[in-house]
Design brief:
about 140 residues; elongated; alpha+beta; 1 helix
Length: about 140
């Protein structure tokens, strides 16, 4: 068995701890996005409505397509702080986008707002939506 005097052993342990701390500290500084290099960073994004909202579809029968199509999506339970914000609404089938409609400014009245789709989408195709509110 190797025997080191206690001062040498504590010096070795201290050097190892400092070395591990420097490696940990250098790994923690890899993030950040600058024009001089690559990295990763994140930022908390606030929302105008933090307690959620519900959505409902307005449909109309298309004799040409012989199916019901979604023409309007209405969101309710919306916080008034979202008033005047811009939105982008994408209707989906799984991960496939069926169409995106944008509005430069929404009007929240009686805790709701509606978006008229730029092109109607077959109701049977829709199984999800993504809504982005910015501004």
């Amino acid at each position: 068995m190797l025997s080191l005097p206690s001062k040498k052993l504590s010096g070795v342990l201290l050097a190892a701890a400092v070395g591990a701390g420097l490696a940990g500290a250098s790994a923690a500084t890899l993030g950040g996005i600058t024009s001089q290099g690559l990295g990763a960073d994140d930022q908390v994004v606030s929302t105008c409505d933090s307690d959620g909202m519900t959505s409902a579809y307005t449909t109309a029968y298309s004799a040409t397509a012989q199916t019901y199509q979604v023409t309007v999506v209405t969101f309710s339970g919306v916080n008034a702080a979202c008033n005047g914000k811009s939105v982008s609404l994408t209707l989906r089938n799984g991960t496939t986008s069926l169409g995106t409609t944008t509005a430069a400014s929404i009007t929240v009245a009686a805790s709701s707002f509606s978006i008229t789709l730029s092109s109607p989408i077959a109701a049977t195709s829709i199984n999800g939506l993504s809504l982005l509110i910015t501004g």
